[in-house]
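Reopening: structure tokens for the flavin-adenine dinucleotide complex, inputs below.
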Amino acid sequence: MTPMSLHTSAVERLCLRNIPLSSFSTYSIGGAANYVALPETADDLAALYQDCKKQGLPWYTFGMGSNILFPDQPDPDMVFVSLKRFTELKTKGDKWFVSAGTPMSLLSLMGLSGGTDLLDFTFLLPGCLGAGIYMNAKYNHRQICDIIDTVYYIDLSSRAMSVQSIPSAECDFAYKQSIFQHHPWIIVGADLNIPVHSEEQIQYVSNLAPAWKERGNHPSSLPQFFSFFLGEVHALAGKGIPTPESMLDIIKYRTGKRHFDYPSCGSVFKNNYNYGVATGSLVDQLNLKGTEHGGAIISPHHGNMILNQNQAKASDIVYLMEVITEAIHRKFGFVPEPEIVLV
Ligand SMILES: Cc1cc2nc3c(=O)[nH]c(=O)nc-3n(C[C@H](O)[C@H](O)[C@H](O)COP(=O)(O)OP(=O)(O)OC[C@H]3O[C@@H](n4cnc5c(N)ncnc54)[C@H](O)[C@@H]3O)c2cc1C
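Re-run output (same inputs, fresh job):
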């Protein structure tokens, strides 16, 4: 413990004050928060929660903010805990340990440098690993749970708030589901079931987190996220590691759907697999693409995305979500379940 931490509370030490949440959300939406904490280790994270408990301050933990809608007027007492500086990739025996704030897309570069295609699906998938595990993020048929061996978490209901572990097989992973949605558990990292490949890979991967923090870590800007990862695959291609077809397809798909052109949180609703038609197609059938409200618009390119096209408020996004919900309920007889989290 440093002399400073003896005298300063964790909230005081780790929080920035009066910070617009819009800069922590890929939606670029959210009013000014009194407290925004940026812990970089599990110890700091646990100390922060303990201090919040002691001071009676509520908290909200998040990663890149690519699946949440912050309020226009945040609760003045709320401590918003961003994990985006809690970024670490390291070897643990013959496996990789990755911390919760590490962008999932960095894993695709780890895979590329280690000669495996098992991590390709994380390429250009916005968000951090902690939330990826929490939401069981997916692309096509590949899900985050496919690459997880053990998850480490802090149980917020425990007094000690020490780090616990749970094997992937016990995490109740299913479509966009995990056990972490049903317990007050904050993920701090995970061992991947991806073997370490070579000394060259270790060297390359050890530079990824610092490079991301330095160059790519503008709070939650989708264009900067895209250009950072595109730059990295080009750099690898320059070193003789060509970009595989699967990653080129992802670039084509995501740029074709204009994923990085406007602030958004990706798909707003989950697909209803019982109904059997993707939500985006239902919105298309209802001719709702292009519907605008305030500064928000239902994407003309993807019916399940609502974009912030011109300084939209959270209330504009919520309004369009209600338009879609009512229309789907009336025409198709079910209420679509939101995928994004309304804070
Ligand atoms: C353009 C675009 C395209 C997208 N495409 C896809 C896609 O193809 N597939 C897909 O699955 N998703 C997609 N998403 C959504 C998003 O990428 C994922 O949901 C991602 O997992 C969110 O990560 P995040 O760090 O931004 O989470 P946040 O938005 O910061 O948080 C999401 C939720 O996770 C919780 N959480 C965050 N960290 C932790 C933690 N450490 N422990 C416990 N709970 C935590 C938060 O409290 C919140 O409830 C897309 C988003 C965008 C903007």
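The pocket of flavin-adenine dinucleotide is lined by residues 26, 61-68, 83, 100, 125-128, 130-132, 134-135, 137-139, 180, 186-187, 259, 264-266, 341 (CB under 6 Å). The first strand starts at residue 15 and ends at 20. Marking as resolved unless the reporter disagrees.
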